[in-house]
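Final report, closing paragraph on structural work. Over the funding period we assembled a curated collection of sequence-structure pairs, and we close with a single example.
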Amino acid sequence: MNVNGKMVAALTAALMMSACSGGTEPGNVAGEGNGVSLRNLADTEVAAPAGDRNFRLQGTLIPTPSDLQSRHFLLRERRAVGGNIIAILREERGDRIAYARTEVDCARRLFHVLGVGPSRATAEVATVYDGPLRPMAGLPLREELGAFICERAGTPLAKG
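Its predicted structure, as stored:
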């Protein structure tokens, strides 16, 4: 196994352990036990130093009044075969960045995380078990991200 393969294996193991920690910090779904915290992703081992912030995809800043410590950017979104929206997000906090691939069902107000990583490419191919699509209700950051993603995709988030 080459160095990159070992790094990806270690990252995947760390993600699986943190994803299954069962914490109830903001951004996790209390009682689910498999939530991935988007609110604190840049504070985890998944994040990387931001470097010079000369990103190939700058993205669009998402207003997130529930998380004033981080900046969240929508890099791209696409409609999946079933109609849900797959979005790539970047979280910046201080000198750290992390990426997430999410899925949103705009009509049913459901959201989950498909993958996370220290780079956009890693998040696009990584798999993290965040559980099935589940309601955003009571999770302000996920509601803010979901509403922005759905609006950008031309399918406004259904009323809650």
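The CA atoms of residues 47 and 98 lie 4 Å apart. The longest helix spans residues 3-19. We thank the funder for supporting this effort.
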